[in-house]
Amino acid sequence: MAKELKFVLLLDCYGELLTVHQRNIMELYYCEDLSLSEIGAPLGITRQAVCTLIKRTETILLNYEEKLGFAEKIGKMRDCFEKISSAADSLEDESVRSSIKSEIKKGLSIL
To answer: pLDDT tens-digit profile of 41-81?
Structure first.
């Protein structure tokens, strides 16, 4: 998994556990793809301060994942839903196939 995608997923999973400041900077960097300067200037902080905060927050997110493992579990659940969906495609009974697909959509929306 690409480093950027990994942190976007971890941010999605554990973002609420971060301070508002940490979460905002991580979202600007990873989700909005802003540079360190573009993040720091409006906040009145240096590029180095932004870089330090990002590195520290990455470590926090990795520690959460190491201890809790929710992002990995969510990924595995998505894989299972995908396999179930593929298996459902081979069913002849349209109503059963439709029902299974509907439940998969509900399950994925919960994740």
So the answer is: 999 999 999 999 999 999 999 999 999 999 999 999 999 99
The per-residue pLDDT for 2 is 61
Nearest to 47, CA basis, from 57, 36, 58: 36
* Distant-in-sequence, close-in-space partners of 11: CB < 8 Å, separation ≥ 6: 23, 26, 27, 30, 31, 61
Length of the chain: 111
In the predicted model, what is the mean pLDDT of residues 16-45? 96
Q: Give me 7's structure tokens.
A: 């942190």
Report the alpha-carbon distance of residue 53 to residue 21 in Å, rounded. Answer: 9
Q: How many of the other CB atoms lie within 10 Å of CB of 60?
A: 17
Among the listed residues 28, 21, 26, 6, the one whose alpha carbon sits nearest the alpha carbon of residue 74: 6
CB 36 within 8 A of CB 8: no
Q: Confidence band (pLDDT; 50, 70, 90) for 102?
A: very high
Residues 6+ apart with CB under 8 A from 33: none
